[in-house]
Amino acid sequence: MIPPEPSERTIFKTRGPLDPVNDSAIYVPRPELDQLLRAAQLTRVDAYLALLSSRQTGKTTLLYQLRHRLRPRGYGVALIDLAVVLDQPEDQLYRFVASGIRSELEPNLRAADKRDVSALPTNPLEFRRFAMDMARQVRAPRIVVLIDEVEAVPESLADAFFGTIRNIFSSRRKEDEVAFEKYLFVLCGAKELHRLSSGPNSPLNIAERIYLQDLTTPGVQMLAANFTRAGILAPPETAQWIFDQTGGHPYLTQKLCAIVEQWRPQHITPDLVQRAADEILRGDDHLEKTILQVETEPLLRDQLRTILAGPPVPFSRLNPAVARLELAGAIRDDQQCVVRNAIYHKAFQAHLNPPAPQPKRRILPWGRILIALLAVVVFAINAPFLINYANDIVLSPRSVNEPAQIPTLGAHAIFRYAPILRANDPEWSSLTVETDQVTIPLSVTFSPESPDIERAGDAQRRFDQAGHQEQFKFRLNQNVVPYNPFQPAVPHQRIHLIFVSAGADRPSYTHTADFRVDYYSIAVTSLVMTIGSIIAFFASLWANVQRLRDAATVIGRLGGTEKE
Question: Looking at the structure, do residues 76 and 203 belong to the same domain, yes or no?
């Protein structure tokens, strides 16, 4: 059977919230609405409310319904959609929220107060003052502020913004701030609202959490009854066929019904419902975003793979991965964690493709003992070298200032240098000689013990006055010696500085600068980077092993086709 071409207009709605009046025929009552209504009409507010659910599950529709039910009963209701303040600065956030509250509550203001409640706030303190002004001047017994899309509040502003809402709740018992008793805030969001659950200013500390559930089979039956309006015969079993695919997910249920309606069949069959579900699986932005949300968080991805592959995982919101998967919409509570519906299960299975559980290979006790002994031996052999290397290279001073009194020449000098040489370092090391006392002209000759030390510039410098200084530049050109843990001593290089008088008898004085040679830092760094790169390569290879298998299968099929 080939479905007919879709028509342009459908009874069912898959974009945006449902209007309480115009979309009443396709609205399915939710038990959570009764819970919200009861809380809003209590004489005393003991807690704010937090409505938690994943994307496109009817949260905003529920807020519209709540506002629609409360306003005729004399309650002041303000619905604020924070989606437009995404990445906005602090002053814009508070102005927008206050403007929305004032605009929606204007009918409840006393006539004398409509001229001006207060200027729009730009920070938490001004917003708190604005809320107090509104509470004192609004005639309604309750002010219900519905805040949708709380995840749009920038993380840098979230603590202050939601902390202010929490403070309004905490301050309502003060004698001069009793007007705050009027407020009931309802926060609406998904996993980003769950992120606010920690910290002393969390709004969830003073909020009752309401988890929005999917539609029941009778709820889907109410929705499926609309097929008759499109002239499509829907047998009594239609609701169950749809529920078996969507699990009552509000968006997927509306989407599947809309696809069937667009095809305009004479009557609905199980095969037709299955074809509509397959159409959703072929490409739907809701599924794409849900998969992307899971894929970008390794903790969620790994937990979902475990749930798909088994064994059963107990459902507990105390498990961070389980709680976030629920609010991402991927799983539901059925005592154990189960994928939310059949469409999700097929989509996750195709994307994540969890491997079949493999029996764990046990390491025998003697194997563990052998590995431990080997580790101890390796450490014991290398310990003397590591201790010497740490003391002489890693923890040693990085500069030396050595004074020297030279009585035979009537001079006093200071030698400054870094006492560690690195082999084959392209940068030049320096040794500075400064004379702060000179009675007769002197010459200083730079004379290294090893021919491996390369000098830059002249080897001999002249000093004829106090306060004169000269700098010798040099570097060590020598290959890294093979590592030998049985020779733990750090090698040294020495440079002699020979002072000679310009007088006739030419007395001399030799000062020796001692340098410790660092042969291994560059080699160790290179080795660590190499090992890290190898581990990363194999980790990436392991993570994509299924894709490599799929690619090999495709290549094999192409090869087989060519041979045929």
Answer: yes
